[in-house]
Amino acid sequence: MKMNIVSDVFGAYCTRVQATLAELPTAIWLDAGGGRVCEFGYLLTAEQAKHGVALDISLDDLLRNSLLTRGVKCDLNQPLPIGDSTVEFVFSSRMIEHLHNPAGFIRECFRILAPGGKLIITVPTGRAPFSVIKRLLPHEISRKLVTKYAPVDPGQLCWSKLYYRSCAPRALAKVCRHVGFEIENLSVSYSQAHHFRSLAIAYWPMKLYDTLAAATGLSGLAAYLLICAQKPKDLK
After folding, report:
1. Contacts of 224 (CB under 8 A, 6+ apart)
2. Long-range pairs for 16-19: beta carbons < 8 A, 24 or more residues apart
3. Hey, where are the domains in the chain?
């Protein structure tokens, strides 16, 4: 299927989530891996926030979530403690790269979604330079570097192990289709130089890399992907 190219994958993710929630303002929805903070929370109405549930392995993070007052502590690598066909939407941002069993998580999302329900995921790809660097460096060194140079609040970052399984556009789409989802949209972004913004010696080479990677149009060189999948409406 055709892949769209976006410059700001998180902006595109938040916009799509906002549009999806607008379809059913009172729908029950899940933010998978959103224990500490809901990344699109600033776009939610009070009514929409009331129907959201955060899923996370960390109880401390769930308790810190000031927007979503309902949370479920669970391991997203394992079967979810949620009934079949009971939620309308599942959203996830920068989470499945931390799962050693992403296919199992996506299969569980298919199970718990009602017919016509949607799964929207954004995730860094495993081949992006910053992803490769994070995997090659020892964990403590990577943590120190990110804490010092990250262009975001390090307190919002997840420090659990990285796997990047199925974290490529075609691979993730294949997993979604395999469990029964229909792919509505698949977008990629080649922008990842911002991770090196505080380190000028690396920023400009990465900026050049982004430009050249985008020029090739090869999805395998994308830094991030965004996928929107739907459970068939006529599924009983």
Report:
1. 9, 122, 123, 124, 125, 128, 188, 189, 191, 192
2. 16/120, 16/185, 16/226, 16/228, 17/43, 17/91, 17/120, 18/43
3. 4-126+164-191+222-230
Q: What is the pLDDT of residue 2?
A: 79
Torsion of CA 12, 14, 15, 21, to 10 degrees: 140
| pLDDT > 90: percent of the chain | 69
Query: What is residue 196's predicted lDDT score, i.e. its pLDDT?
Result: 79
- Are 98 and 61 in contact, with CB atoms under 8 Å apart? no
Instruction: Give domain 4-126+164-191+222-230's CATH superfamily.
Output: Vaccinia Virus protein VP39 (3.40.50.150)
Amino acid letter, 120 = I
Nearest partner of 126 among 158, 154, 162, judged by Cα: 162
Q: What is the pLDDT of residue 6?
A: 95
Cα–Cα distance measured from residue 224 to residue 13, given in angstroms and rounded to the nearest whole number? 11
Contact 188, 3 (CB under 8 A): yes
Identify residue 163 by its one-letter amino acid code. Y
**Residue 39 to residues 46, 48, 91, Cα–Cα distance (Å):** 15, 14, 10
Collect the ranges in the chain with pLDDT lower than 50: 154-155
Helix (H, G, I), strand (E, B) or coil at 155: helix
